[in-house]
Amino acid sequence: EGQLLLLDPPHWMKRPEKLRVAALYAPLRAFLARTKPMHPVDKVVAYERVVGTTSTGRLLEKAQFKRLLELASEALRAVGKASDSIVVYSGKQRNSLEMMSFEQQYRLFNSAYLLFGPHGAGMANSLWMQTADCVQRPAVIEFICSTDTSNVRGCYVYQGTQKLIRPQSFWRLFGGAYWVRYYHVWMLRLNDRNGDVASVDEDGFNMS
């Protein structure tokens, strides 16, 4: 039987506002290293959060997601890596409406050296990416809300009557995600209407 370990960080421990304590994740990752197989690191995972996949906002247009895949393929070829290593992830099994099991998701993300996509539940799987040395750590590129996306659902909250931008990131939720190199790219306003869809700063994505 396993054991559940509850960590209670000391109250004097300094941390930025709302940044989770990184030490909370070390026991989980150590447990996984002992109990789960480590897979060959040979994949790029593109989190597909486009129109029609979810109803919680922060969506991309399918056409732009396709362009991002093309940009990623070009970047991989430029450094001598196989562009066919890109796996599109939506949470569902390929050519099926059935959700992937935990084991399937773990295997996919544990084998990823790069993950990119909009902030959303799928990006939480970066927790399963392997740890390497400081030079070879896997990388995450997360598209996050900006002041330009104040009309996009999922990018703002209300406190009373005040509308506040909500730039959520798993870098913060994972206490800095010390096991990966983490990059943020702004999401931008697609148009002036309120809605679920934003765009991504493609120049920023290219630089990452």
Name some characteristics of this structure.
208 residues, Glyco_transf_61_cat, globular, two-stranded antiparallel ribbon, Glycosyltransferase 61 catalytic domain-containing protein, Rossmann fold, glycosyltransferase activity, alpha/beta, 7-stranded mixed sheet
Task: Show the helix and strand layout.
Blueprint: H1 26-35, E1 43-47, E2 59-60, H2 62-78, E3 86-89, H3 102-110, E4 112-118, E5 139-144, E6 156-159, E7 162-165, H4 170-173, E8 181-189, E9 197-200, H5 202-207
Question: Would you mind describing this structure in some detail?
Answer:
- The chain contains 5 helices and 9 strands.
- It has a 7-stranded mixed beta sheet with strand order 2-9-8-5-4-1-3. A two-stranded antiparallel sheet has the order 6-7.
- The protein has one domain (42-207): Rossmann fold.
- It is globular, with a radius of gyration of 18 Å.
- With 208 residues, it is α/β, with parallel strands linked by helices.
- This is Glycosyltransferase 61 catalytic domain-containing protein.
- One of its GO terms (molecular function) is glycosyltransferase activity.
